[in-house]
Amino acid sequence: MSQKLYGWGLPVDVSTSGWEIDRLIYILHVFMAVLFVGWVVFLIYTLFRFRQRPGENRSTASGHFKLPTYLEVGVALFEVLLLTAFAFPIWNQTHVKMPSPESSLQVRVVAEQFAWNIHYPGKDGLYGKTDPKLVNQQNPLGLVSGDPSAADDVVTLNQFHIPVGKPVIVELSSKDVIHSFALPVMRIKQDAIPGQKVKIWFEAKRTGDFEIACAQLCGLGHYRMRGFFVVDSPDAFAKWFDEQAAAGKSS
Description:
10 strands
């Protein structure tokens, strides 16, 4: 994996909607820099302008003027602009407007201490039934082996492959504690909460080998929550999927 993907700046943008998030991040940082520099300049000015001088008798009465009020109102209006013109539209695009399941790759991601279980439905498009009583080291999701829908399912550990140029709908959940599913190159970060199923979606615009990270301290083995996120070409993904399905049948 190229270290250039994770340098001093933002990670490489692989998502079709990542540019919107990056734009908002840059605007926020420029805004914060302007506020910081403005306050520092004001502090230096006041320290110099109102320093104590020999022989001067300064009045301690406060003097009121309207500029600070205008500045505070301007900052508040700019924050409202950020929410309405940037943040809310991004949220609507990435969390509310889901692509159709028929045109998407659907995947379940089940977090646990300390791994990511990736569950693909088979070519029938149906997830196999699961039973918590069947969960063990060999069957981390508790798939019911006698269920016809489970026969062609593919389950991987820390290996998340997707095809480029196709929307991916992820149903995120957790088996134990709160984890945080993070794909930095896709600008995705979502908590995996026990007892809840949260759907997120994204679409990759280029191929490559990247990482899955857990952005939530989830226990002493948190450092082991590193997964591998691979964006394949459609043909390479189909080949990989067929190989995984064949390996699952043979085992």
